Amino acid sequence: MTDKRCPKCGMSVEETAQKCECGFDFTTCTLTKEEMEKEAKKNSGIGLRHVVFFLVVFAAGPMMKAFIDSFGYGAALCALAVLLIVAAVLWVIVRAVERKHKK
After folding, report:
1. pTM score of the predicted model
2. What is the pLDDT of residue 9?
């Protein structure tokens, strides 16, 4: 017996399954009403990532000012470049973990 993949979450389910654990209904190719409400609640509001982003952005200004005052503009630009690279790497890691948990 072969398995099929859920188009919503990517999970492998039995070929005869009518619904996935995530709530996707294979017979109608839609989510159940309860799962649609859960998705709406999960995707609404301010998430932890938003809070962390704003804290970092608002903290970065005073930190860069102190860094410039202590070490000069050249070192501050190097530090900013490193900060951007670290942020990009962290973003890639977070996306990979999110994708892994969806499967």
Report:
1. 0.41
2. 79
Q: Is the pLDDT of residue 24 over 70?
A: yes
* Whether residue 53 is found in the same domain as residue 79: yes
Domain tally, the chain: 2
Strands 24-25 and 30-31: antiparallel
CA-CA distance, 25 to 38, in Å (whole number)? 15
Give dist(CA 53, CA 76) in Å, integer.
20
Domain containing 91 equals 46-103
Counting DSSP H helices and E strands in the chain, the numbers are 3, 4
Evaluate whether 16 touches 26 at the Cβ level (below 8 Å): no
The confidence band for 87, taking pLDDT boundaries of 50, 70 and 90, is: confident
Contacts of 12 (CB under 8 A, 6+ apart): 3, 4, 5, 6
